[in-house]
Amino acid sequence: MVQFISVTQAILFAGKQLQRLHIEEKDVDEKGQSRSVHSVLLRKLILTASSSGIIGNAAKLLSTLNKEAADKGDLPNLFIISSGQFPEVAKARSLVQSAKEKLDLLIGLYRKQLRMNNLEFMSVSGTTHLIELPVDVKVPSNWVKVNSTKKTVRYHPPEVLSALDQLSLANEELMIACRGAWDSFLRAFDKYFSEFQAAVQALATLDCLHSLAILSRNKNYVRPVFVGDSEPVQMHICSGRHPVLETVLQDNFVPNDTNLHADGEYCEIVTGPNMGGKSCYIRQVALIAIMAQVGSFVPASSAKLCVLDGIHTRMGSSDSIQQGRSTFLEELSEASHIIHNCTSRSLVIIDELGRGTSTHDGVAIAYATLHYLLEHKRCMVLFVTHYPKIVDVKNEFPGSVGAYHVSYMMSQRAMDMDTDKTGSKSDKNAQTMDHEDVTYLYKLVPGVSERSFGFKVAQLAQLPSSCIRRANIMAAELEAMIVSRVKNSSAQKTLQGSQESISIQSGCSGAEQIGLEEDACREFFLDLKSALGNADPERSLQFLKHARSIAKELIGR
User: Fold this and answer.
1) Which of the 8 DSSP states describes residue 21?
2) Which residue, of 131, 262, 356, 359, has the fewest CB within 10 Å?
């Protein structure tokens, strides 16, 4: 009831306001254009929402309903009876009124009977029409005692009980009549439904267009330029901004450019640190594209693009446990849907594909998915990843794929920690990662990001410091293992190439020499691990000195 009246009142009010524009059906010039409103769409919407028919019907419907009663949920008083409308409700109301009048007349009878001119009916705890008398007053034996106090007793005479039964029955009949009248009212409204639905849709569209117009004016949005269907698929955005975050960050938002072209670079692989702005960038591109498609101005200094047949996205993570579908299955199902439905005129946004499985499987699946999109679909793609290996797809599609990353700036102290005096990475990173001073610049620049700074996010999430330190140590160990494998593989090839020379100089076979090298490397990294994990500085220094001597020996060999 409340919603119906509110919507109808809104339609009536808006229609009357729009009528003040004085737009008529025949208000057009020789070329068929409106003299007052040049937009065909606006003119159509205004005429739909302000037609005399919709305003007249809305006023007619509201004239039969009591808004105050609707706000209170008072169905018995909802309908305004006039001109013979709702006869069942009118009859039921008269019966209720008669029952109430009969009850009111009974009090005069009891005043005479008890000789108490000031006697009145009273209500206690929801029980109405009680007669309260002192305990010493005698009453007829058929009066029903309801409750009492030390000084008074409250009664219901039999005539009151009978009249109350009649009133209760009359109220029930009134409720039944009102429900029937409401159902009949809604059935009668059915003939106006399509007209009201069109008015609501027109007002909703006008509201949307008005909001976009105000936003575009206040935020300096620009009108996008669309290329013809005969031109290659493309998207060129200069200083694009995220329409939501820009409002939150005000002047602190960092804009970015986007340049995709079917005959050139139509894929961007975006890497960068966690919380560095990767997802914000690709979402802003998608939002700008959507806003342009619906006819809105866009948050950028300039925008030129084609008409898209779809914008396909795969972002975030979710599961469907009730259907037996894991997070990774949902992720790949979304990617599959994109592959099967996108075309060369689509924009595809993929964020972090391949996270729900092992690193090797994730990299392989992400690489293969992107390769398929580039080779078979040739659609515009923005592909966000933390896997640098994905960038190798550039070699198979020269000129079509660009590698970008959201930039960051490290303090000189952090850079000194990250690089030792000789310019090589130090194994002491594990102890200093959680002290790095990193500033995110949120600017998209060419290249691949070497770091993700996951430990900084762990700090923001307030993981225990001991947990973060342990993670740092483990990360350093894993990195050292990879470096060791690479060095051992290279050293093994070198040793195998000069096996005879090594055997003569050392007095042992080539296989034995390789074994000695491997043992020395293993001992070197064990000393480093012990140095990093030992809380005693003196003991750690001893391990480091021993590792240094092993390194010198290996270099000498």
Assistant:
1) T
2) 359
The runs of H, that is alpha helices, within 190-277 are 193-218, 245-249
Q: How far apart are CA 278 and CA 271, in angstroms?
A: 7
Q: Which residue has the tokens 């806003």?
A: 291
Separation CA 372–CA 362 (nearest Å): 15
Q: What does the alpha-carbon distance between residue 139 and residue 154 come to, in Å, rounded to a whole number? A: 11
Pairing mode, strands 267-271 and 380-384: parallel
Q: Which burial class, exposed, middle or buried, applies to 433 when counting CB atoms under 10 A from its CB (0-12, 13-18, 19+)?
A: buried
Structure tokens at 115: 């000789």
Look up the pTM and report it: 0.70
Residue 244: name the closest of 207, 209, 210, 291 by CA: 291
Q: Distance (Å, rounded) from C-alpha 157 to C-alpha 143?
A: 4
193-218 vs 52-62: helix crossing angle, rounded to 10:
110
* H-helix or E-strand spanning residue 258: strand 256-261
**Cα 196 to Cα 5: distance, rounded to the nearest angstrom:** 13
Tens of pLDDT, residues 423-440: 444 344 444 444 457 788
Neighbours of 434 (CB within 10 A): 15
At residue 451, the 3 state secondary structure works out as: coil
pLDDT digits (tens, 9 = 90+) for 242-278: 999 998 988 889 999 999 999 999 999 999 888 889 9
